[in-house]
Each structure stands twice: as C-alpha cells, then as structure tokens.
C-alpha cells in the first residue's frame, strides 16, 4: 500500500474563527517536511488534525488509499502515524533501555501474554538496542531517563514513538526548551532516521528548518501561503514579508 499522508481541503473552525482553512497538502513517503509560520498560524491545529486529536470541521485526511478522517488517534498509531508525547512518570523512573523494551513489548502485545518466551524478550531487547543506536543513545542505555539532560530526554521520547514502528513521525517543536547547541544535534539525528519513516515537523528556528527540511510549507492565518524546497521558500518574497520579515524584527 502506498502510504502517502495527504489532506484534502481540511478546515478547523471554532465558532466563527477558522484556525485551519482549506488545507490540501501531500507528504511524500520518506521526506523531511517542515511546517512553519508565525505564532497562531495554525500549525499545531493542523498536526492535531493529522493525528486525530482534533476532528476537522470539513475536509478529509488520507493515509495511502484510506480515508482516515474519522479514525481515532489509537487507530492511526496502529496504522503507522505517531507523534511524540512527553515522557510520563513511569518512563522517567526506568532506564532508557527498559523504557524502549517496554514500549516494544506493549506494541507486540507481549504484556498481555503471561507466557513470554526468552526468545521474544531477547528480540525486544535487540530491537531496542538497535533503535537506541540509531538515536545515538547507545551510551545512555543504562541511565535512568530522568537523570538524562533535557535534549536526550527528547530523544528518548522519539525512541518511544519509533518503537510503534511508524511510517509517519509527527514532531511539534521537538527542540523546544533545549539549548541551541543541542538542538542541531537533535535535528541531525532526526534527519538521519531511516528513510522508511516520513518526518513532519513544526519548528520556529529557521536555521534548523533550512538545514534539515527537504520541503517546507508556510502557513499564515490558517491557510497555506506557499510550499516548496528550502531554496524556493527562501527566495519567495511573500514569505520574507509575512514570516521571515517578522522573525527578523523579533530578533
Ligand atoms: N481549542 C481551541 N479553541 C479556540 N481556538 C483555538 C483552540 N486551539 C487553538 N486555537 C486558536 O487557533 C489559532 C491557531 O493555533 P495553533 O496553536 O494551531 O497555532 P500555531 O501555528 O501552532 O502557533 P504557535 O507557533 O504559537 O504554537 C490560535 O489563534 C489559537 O488561539
């Protein structure tokens, strides 16, 4: 099945206020796609419509050939669309390896099965080790997650999301709150994830966006202003005026 994620004329309205208006976007499999736009442009609302956290007022979401507009968040995760969540207290108290093994075991339903073979447990541990190596956390596997620096905790969140074996990973400001020296490293790891994972991310730091995104969609006032490659977006006069101009004034 072709698992291109796409929206068709999606809108979200609260009363008379339109947070998203008629957004039609396609995310090519394996791409690294950034959503940018000024504060309040509707980026988080759009991600929530993709994950199923919000239902659109009108329009549709397709994953491959399937119309998933009315599917629950849980169903979408099972189909291969995952977003990161803040690590909860349970995971904070476990080591990095324990957390990821737990997430893999949960995915495979091993904890609902009282009889777990040693082979099944070994497979989960091996898979967790491989995943943590991809995220450059191999030196931290035995560290209790709450003792890790904040940037590495964000990577553990991504590891837990990847443990669901997503085809699409949705990231809402993954580097928020991380010192800027660490955020580039975080994005380097994200951009080097296997190409069978499509990554869609919201990011305010334009340096990171232009360095790591392959396609960029600019949202303004809930609508798509334009979409293109980083070169196309940085050359677009309208983007400079409504977004990059504003960012420049903020600095
Ligand atoms: N549940 C809600 N009810 C009413 N208005 C909402 C709701 N959620 C979001 N909004 C409004 O929708 C608009 C878009 O918000 P959204 O969080 O999607 O923007 P954003 O582009 O992610 O902004 P930021 O970059 O500041 O995070 C904002 O004006 C926000 O106040």
From TrEMBL:
CDD domains associated with the record: ABC_Mj1267_LivG_branched
Domain of life: Bacteria
GO molecular function term, any single one: ATP binding
InterPro entries reported for this sequence: AAA+_ATPase, ABC_AA/LPS_Transport, ABC_transporter-like_ATP-bd, BCA_ABC_TP_C, P-loop_NTPase
Gene3D superfamilies noted in UniProt: P-loop containing nucleotide triphosphate hydrolases
Signal peptide positions on this chain: none
Boundaries of every ABC transporter domain copy: 5-246
Gene Ontology CC terms, in alphabetical order: plasma membrane
Protein's UniProt keywords contain Iron: no
UniProt-listed SMART domains: AAA
Protein's recorded name: Amino acid/amide ABC transporter ATP-binding protein 1 (HAAT family)
Organism, as annotated: Pusillimonas noertemannii
């Amino acid at each position: 099945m072709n698992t291109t994620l796409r929206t068709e004329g999606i809108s979200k309205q609260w009363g008379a206020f339109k947070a998203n208006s008629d957004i039609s976007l396609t995310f090519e499999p394996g791409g690294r796609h950034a959503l940018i736009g000024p504060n309040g442009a509707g980026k988080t609302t759009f991600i929530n419509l993709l994950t199923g956290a919000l239902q659109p007022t009108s329009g549709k979401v397709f994953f491959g050939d399937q119309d998933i507009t009315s599917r629950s968040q849980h169903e979408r995760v099972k189909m291969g669309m995952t977003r990161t969540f803040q690590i909860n207290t349970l995971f904070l108290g476990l080591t990095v390896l324990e957390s990821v093994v737990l997430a893999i075991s949960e995915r495979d339903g091993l904890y609902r099965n009282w009889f777990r073979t040693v082979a099944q447990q070994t497979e989960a541990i091996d898979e967790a080790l491989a995943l943590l190596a991809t995220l450059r956390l191999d030196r931290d596997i035995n560290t209790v997650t709450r003792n890790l620096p904040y940037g590495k905790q964000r990577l553990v969140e991504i590891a837990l999301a990847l443990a669901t074996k997503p085809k699409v990973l949705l990231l809402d400001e993954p580097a928020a709150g991380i010192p800027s020296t660490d955020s580039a490293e975080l994005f380097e790891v994200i951009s080097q994830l296997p190409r069978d994972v499509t990554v869609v991310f919201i990011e305010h730091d334009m340096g990171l966006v232009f360095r790591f995104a392959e396609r960029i969609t600019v949202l303004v006032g809930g609508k798509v202003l334009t979409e293109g490659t980083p070169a196309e977006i940085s050359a677009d006069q309208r983007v400079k005026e409504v977004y990059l101009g504003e960012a420049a004034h903020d600095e």
